[in-house]
Write a structure and sequence with these properties.
alpha+beta; 6-stranded antiparallel sheet; about 40% helix; about 15% strand; disordered C terminus
Length: about 375
């Protein structure tokens, strides 16, 4: 049986006992045959999704409480075009009238084919698979560039302020008990002070507000949670297109690499895999070393100034936040990245240097 599909799009959670039936007659709006059974898919609070089994195959039905029709029409047009271009993107199934967004009782519904495959972490991939994944993202960027309207090339990307982040740290420190607190209070205070010191040390390293860079339509959340792999290690589906957005292309390359290849502890990023990934992207949608380095600079800065994970770790349920391990990993990456800033700037841009480009076999990522 194929694996299930994610909360946002067809993805990672298995069907469970149906505690909310599909609205009566809804499935008749699509030409998919009589359903043999439906099962709720765990989609998080406030979301309802179902797996629908029919004689013609399995499908994934998602409900939208307040659908943004204009945005969804554009998203569906894009994903349909990507699917028709031969990329591993799921197009929504048109209803009998041709629409991909069906409404009933004020709610919206979208039906997708059920996708097989499984999830894999970026650190599970071989260097060759990392390069292939980067090439896939580059192919998506190239296709999006050709299939969507032009995007204004002078984007003002707001830059977080170190002073604002430091003030947020100070405010959180003021809420933490002093000598009478617990060991967890003491650890949290230490982590917050460490971030405060980094913000002070690197206050002069803020990236500029405006940079000359290639912008376009982006996937918006290209990471392990939205990728499905087949048995041969190839990507069977890129999910998560609800995050479709616009912005600097290099920014998405760097964000994707940072999410895919972060070790989750003091080891920081696997830079060999990062280089393979960026090299793959370069082969399908070349940018230049300057754009990549600017994007690395901005991604590091935004993570440095994002103190929300630290606040959540202290203020969340049982003092651990919603995802304590993820937040610890995020904080560890900021510390590592700050200590390795020059190294990461060079490593991300290495696939664009003449030496690296001419002798890929000598790269440590392929050794």
């Amino acid at each position: 049986m194929p694996t299930s599909q994610s909360a946002d799009t067809p993805g990672a959670h298995a069907p469970r006992a149906d505690t909310g039936a599909v609205p009566p007659r809804l499935l008749k709006r699509w030409e998919i045959g009589a359903p043999a059974g439906t099962g709720r898919v765990d989609a998080g609070p406030g979301r309802r999704c179902w797996r629908v089994d029919t004689a013609d195959g399995a499908f994934f039905l998602r409900e939208y409480a307040e659908p943004d029709r204009r945005r969804m029409r554009f998203q569906h047009a894009v994903t349909t075009a990507l699917d028709e271009a031969g990329l591993p993107v799921l197009a929504p199934v048109p209803a009998r009238g041709g629409r991909t967004l069906v409404t009933a009782s004020g709610r919206g519904y979208v039906l997708y084919p059920w996708v097989g495959g499984r999830g894999r972490g970026g650190l599970e991939l071989t260097f060759g698979q990392c390069e292939a994944l980067g090439e896939l993202l580059g192919r998506l960027h190239a296709a999006l560039d050709g299939l969507t309207p032009p995007v204004q090339q002078s984007l003002l990307v707001p830059t977080p302020r170190a002073g604002d982040a430091a003030a947020a740290v100070d405010a959180t420190l003021g809420d933490i008990p002093g000598d009478g607190g617990t060991d967890f209070d003491a650890l949290t205070a230490r982590r917050l002070r460490e971030r405060r010191e980094l913000l002070t040390e690197f206050a002069g390293h803020q990236p500029p507000e405006i940079e000359v860079t290639t912008v376009g339509h982006l996937h918006g959340s290209f990471d392990s949670a939205h990728l499905r792999y087949g048995g041969s290690g190839n990507v069977t589906a890129v999910l998560g297109w609800d995050g479709l957005t616009t912005g600097p292309v290099a920014g998405e390359v760097v964000r994707a690499a940072a999410r895919l290849f972060a070790c989750g502890d003091e080891r920081g990023l696997d830079l060999d895999r990062v280089q393979a990934f960026v090299r793959g992207h370069r082969s399908a949608f070349p940018l230049d070393a300057g754009q990549i380095q600017s994007a690395v600079h901005r991604e590091w800065w935004e993570r440095l100034c994002d103190v929300a994970p630290l606040r959540h770790r202290y203020l969340g349920e049982d003092g651990a936040g919603e995802d304590g391990a993820g937040e610890r990993g995020s904080a560890a990456l900021v510390t590592w990245w700050s200590a390795q800033l020059d190294r990461t700037l060079d490593a991300f841009a290495a696939p664009y240097t003449d030496v690296y480009a001419d002798t890929p076999g000598d790269s440590p990522a392929f050794g």
